Amino acid sequence: MAGIDIEGLATVYPNGVRAVDGLDLHVVDGEFFALLGPSGCGKTTLLRTIAGLEHATEGTVRIDAADVTRAEPGKRGVAMVFQDYALFPHMNVSENITYPLKVRRVALSTRTATAERTAAELSLQGLLERKPGQLSGGQQQRVALARAIASEGKVLLLDEPLSNLDARLRLEARTFLKKLQRDLGITTVFVTHDQAEALALADRIAVMESGKLRQLGSPREVFARPANTFVANFIGSTPMNLLPGTVASTTSADELGVVLVAGGSLPATAYSAPSGAEVTVGVRPEYLTLATGDVSGPSLRGEVVVAENLGTQSLVSVDCDGTLIGVTVPEEAEPEPGTRVVISASASRVLLYDRESGDLLARQPATVG
Ligand code: ADP
Ligand code: MG
Q1: What is the pLDDT of residues 226-278, one digit of tens each?
Q2: Which residue in 98, 122, 148, 262 has the fewest CB atoms around it within 10 Å?
Q3: Are residues 60 and 85 in the same domain?
Q4: Is 222 in the same domain as 267?
């Protein structure tokens, strides 16, 4: 059982930067856990603080229930893969993989066996005698992973493990990494700035901004119900529409409300916002429907500006009273620019955020379940 418990953690650099700023997190044993956020939000610092490579200024880190906040990196039972892999150029693959074991004075015969077994697990057979300079980027990345796995830590920490690979290889490596983590069942925390990667790989995602946690949830939760407009903006290949709106009617809990936005209105499940409240309305382009005829119920009217090809879908930008709203449509269903269209949505997909704080407004209690 090797969960990670982080309580009130802050890491402040000597120059005063609070790179991690009061964080509480619990990573469950065996979980594949993503730290996601824009560059500079403190992901690497958090990972290095868990590993003991940075000093926690406040708070505690527990691994496998043991308080390791002040423990040496080597005593924490963690294995880390650095963003640049940090392979030793003068050592061959076998020596690189078993270096942590050599430091621990494990016998050569055991090291050789470990190198062969780990190399097989990571599809590196036949490369054990090569130097890192004679390997492709993907192979180097797997050697770095192999070295971390061979050290038999309780916890695996990966800093942007796929970001140095080219786009095509990254997808392959992503699948490989997910399967490997599942097979090993080792508690893994990986850092990424790529929301698609976090959604694809993680059991749960912690979204960070400026050293703080903005949302913790499953990929589905952070995609479908971002807790605030920061997460709403950050998650999704096509950006979520975030529109100024005014609540027009809130009715009893199980009935629908209506929110006015540029070009008309959208339905919304009753929220804890009174009639007349100024809100930010969030709705993903994928959850909007485009029609050219009449639509019953709340809808928006506008004119098609452009359509962008996304492969099997197109993102259509519609001008609604001067506000551009994105709607995705199936391929070959794009209306021509200039077409008058009607946009509608299901109430369950329309999210209301507090205009000031950007926080998601909770549905009224009676609608829960
Ligand atoms: P991320 O990995 O999310 O890009 P980092 O953890 O590397 O973010 O950095 C978080 C913040 O801490 C940034 O503002 C960065 O400039 C600052 N920072 C990182 N390393 C140091 C350091 N060694 N000394 C001072 N500030 C640092
Ligand atoms: Mg980083």
Answers
A1: 999 999 999 999 989 999 999 987 655 545 688 899 999 999 887 778 888 99
A2: 262
A3: yes
A4: no
